[in-house]
């Protein structure tokens, strides 16, 4: 039986297996994003659905359509240099919010991977950002 990974267990197994467990998730793929806490300065790691876009990686700051953004997004706004792990590849990236010109195409790409993103956007008046992770 395959255990559905989530939260801390997802992170632990992903790290221990270089993504052999945790990269493929619910019919899509995840990476690990490590941000620096804007208040605490502590490192925080979050598994997120991603897609490649050229040399960059895309993630969505949806928080399931909540009115407030996820904490990892607030952290990267304060400290845009982040750690990323995709399978066994670990690297530093610069995180930025997609520009208004970029966002429509990037949103379509992410919603094609995880259709619930479109539903999440209908739940909130907050414009849900697409984040571009550019390898440094």
From TrEMBL:
InterPro entries, A to Z: F420H2_quin_Rdtase, Split_barrel_FMN-bd
| Catalytic reactions of this protein | oxidized coenzyme F420-(gamma-L-Glu)(n) + a quinol + H(+) = reduced coenzyme F420-(gamma-L-Glu)(n) + a quinone
- Pfam families in alphabetical order: F420H2_quin_red
Can you tell me which residues the record assigns to a coiled coil? Answer: none
Q: What is stated as this protein's family in its record? A: Belongs to the F420H(2)-dependent quinone reductase family.
Name the chain's protein: Nitroreductase family deazaflavin-dependent oxidoreductase
**What is the organism of origin for this protein?**
Actinoallomurus vinaceus
